[in-house]
Design brief:
By secondary structure, this protein is an alpha+beta fold. Helix content is about 40%, strand content about 15%.
Length: about 625
């Protein structure tokens, strides 16, 4: 059978899964299907030249390896070859030695293919399938399917190449990629070999610690990525933090996100590979979950990275995609489009596109993947083209009819904002501390709970004998303070002081009168114990006469970057708290992209009469059902 459609390939894969069910768990099917798909593709691609390659090999096999490789690749018409007399169909001729022959067939490939198969660790699966009497049936199934057409597994890289060539058949394309996962690397590398691309451009390794493209010429016109969502970078933390210390000489100069989500590290890595605008610039497409849009407050790593991207005018658009698009997650996803070669009308602007309703239900779910975006084939709507047109039109508040809860409604699907509209000031609003004071027994007793007072009776320094002496001295000091305060209580216990300055002056004068000196820490503990918050009291002031802020009344406000802070403060804060002020030293600038907020449409609840009618209708139907039962 020749595979012509994705549906045919999916049906074939399910048939293999049915063969493996039992000896293999569901999450292990890929250990067999992926390497055999790649191996069968190599087998199909080499089939037309198989005889010529074998004939040529007999003539050149005694010559140096480089000569042999060059000659055989030339005959095969590919960058790889196989010198075994076996192929998938001939493997089935000797069922008793099938495991040995499959291993031998793989070892007869050129080195570049063997490297790929080694990354799949397929030898283990050959032995396992042979033990469970599965190997023959699985090889037979793959032998009966033709995988020579473009059913590639190179993902976005391959599809992007096909699309560009459909637009310009003469385009000069050079494909590069890197992946840490052995299987993903092997699949992509095999795809590049089959397509005649330079497979050495597909690098195996961690992009963070082992950047595969460090040379000056490694700048790219177009970049695509679908990095894992919420990936932790704790394992690479030391390396990444060290590179971040290099500032913009390294890849992570803009900032570091929290360690449990490295999404914005991937984006910084890609931005470091952009060509300069003088060299033609670059464009980037990357898929994220919602976290990079808004996670992190002003001044955080995430906010600083967004600030860096937006103030450099690199963010062109963000597209909200439908849910349940991916096999291993059903969460909301977003496509970010970045460029340092924006069209004139897009400069200083960011387009937000709401494409969450542009999907069709799949006939059969694949894990969490239940939806797909229609491509105009097989009776599906042309939703990919429609999203592209909305992006190209670049119009604010462009509307479309979309299906919401089964009903067609007109909704805005495109909004355009200036870069600075995504920025904000986070200001700290302080209010003055107002306290009253009293020398009552109840308040004096609170001193026992003050940490500074408690520490007087403990010592962590010196040797044991000296610690005991210090502890005794501390207890004696505690008793002296208690006695001093009880004496003041007898004289001033009935007075409620509403002015902190008056209270402190009295305390200091009584210290001098009693020839009893409190150090600043002890005095601070006493003030904390003897005070209570009182909105009617006078404002507490510091040594300079400035109001002291009350930490418990401290608040923050978010002010749009497009607005004057003072005007906002006068309008939104002072009418409610006239004694407030801004601590300007704490003001920070943050950036976020609240896409959902911009597309939110209030849906009023239904009228009570409608709800009541529905309830009565349900009651009537229930009663009718009960009558049938009775």
């Amino acid at each position: 059978m020749t595979v012509q459609t994705h549906q045919q390939l999916a049906s074939f894969i399910w048939s293999i899964c049915n063969l493996l069910r039992g000896p293999y768990k569901r999450n292990e099917y890929r250990k067999v299907i992926l390497p055999l798909t790649v191996l069968r593709r190599f087998d199909c691609i080499l089939a037309p030249t198989k005889a010529e390659v074998l004939e040529k090999y007999e003539k050149v096999k005694e010559r140096p390896d480089k000569v042999v490789q060059s000659q055989l690749c030339s005959v095969a018409g590919m960058d790889f070859y196989n010198i075994s007399k076996l192929d998938f169909s001939r493997l089935l001729d000797d069922p008793n030695h099938l495991a040995k022959n499959v291993a031998g067939y793989i070892s007869a490939f050129s080195t570049n293919v063997r490297d790929i198969m080694d990354r799949f660790s397929f030898g283990e699966q050959i032995a396992r399938m042979a033990e469970k009497n599965l190997l023959y049936e699985v090889i037979k199934a793959f032998a009966n399917i033709d995988l020579s057409p473009a059913c590639g597994t190179g993902g976005m890289l391959s599809i992007a190449e096909e699309y560009i060539r459909s637009l310009n058949a003469k385009a000069s394309l050079h494909l590069f990629g890197q992946d840490w996962n052995d299987e993903a690397w092997a699949i992509c590398r095999s795809d590049m070999l089959i397509k005649g691309e330079n497979a050495d451009n597909i690098v195996l390794g961690d992009s963070f610690e082992k950047d595969g493209f460090t040379e000056p010429q490694h700048k790219f016109d177009y970049m695509l990525a679908n990095p894992p969502f919420g990936v932790e970078w704790k394992q690479q933390q030391k390396f990444i933090e060290k590179e971040a210390e290099r500032g913009y000489q390294g890849r992570f100069g803009a900032g570091l996100p929290r360690v449990n989500d490295g999404a914005l590290l991937f984006l910084q890595h890609m931005i470091s590979k952009m060509r300069s605008s003088d060299e033609g610039g670059s464009r980037i497409g990357i898929i994220f979950n919602g976290s990079p849009l808004f996670t992190g407050d002003a001044g955080s790593g995430e906010s600083e990275i967004r600030k860096w991207i937006i103030t450099n005018d690199w963010l062109e658009a963000v597209v909200a995609l439908p849910e349940q698009l991916f096999y291993n997650t059903g969460i909301s996803t977003y496509l970010w489009i970045l460029s340092n070669r924006k069209e004139p009308e897009r400069k200083g602007m960011i387009q937000l596109i709401d494409a969450r309703q542009f999907y069709v239900k799949m006939r059969k779910s694949l894990g969490n993947k239940r939806n797909e975006i229609g491509d105009g084939t097989s009776g599906r709507p042309e939703q990919i083209g429609e999203i592209t047109r909305i992006y190209s039109n670049f119009r604010h508040d462009e509307t479309r009819e979309v299906s919401i809860e089964g009903r067609l409604k007109k909704r805005s699907v495109s909004k355009i904002f200036k870069n600075e509209e995504f920025g904000f000031y986070k200001i700290t609003v302080e209010r003055p501390r107002r306290l009253n004071f009293a020398f009552t027994e109840e308040r004096i007793a609170r001193l026992e709970n003050e940490p500074v007072f408690q520490k007087l009776a403990t010592s962590q320094k010196h040797k044991e004998d000296q610690r005991l002496a210090e502890t005794e001295a501390g207890k004696q000091r505690q008793e002296e303070i208690r006695t001093f305060l009880k004496g003041l209580a007898k004289i001033h216990g009935e007075i409620l002081f509403s002015d902190s300055e008056q209270f402190l002056n009295l305390l200091k004068s009584q210290e001098r009168k009693a020839d009893f000196r409190l150090d600043p820490a002890e005095r601070k503990a006493i003030v904390a114990a003897l005070s209570e918050r009182d909105e009617t009291a006078e404002i507490c002031r510091d040594g300079k006469g400035d109001p002291e802020p009350d930490p418990e009344l401290r608040d923050t406000e978010t002010v749009p970057l497009t607005e004057e802070i003072e005007e906002y403060f006068k309008r939104e804060v002072l009418p409610h708290v006239p004694d407030a002020w801004i601590d300007e030293k704490k003001t920070k600038v943050g950036y976020e992209i609240p896409l959902n907020r911009h597309f939110y449409v209030y849906e009023p609840p239904r009228e009570l009469e409608q709800i009541e009618a529905d309830i009565k209708g349900l009651e009537a139907s229930i009663l009718a059902l009960l009558k049938e039962v009775v």
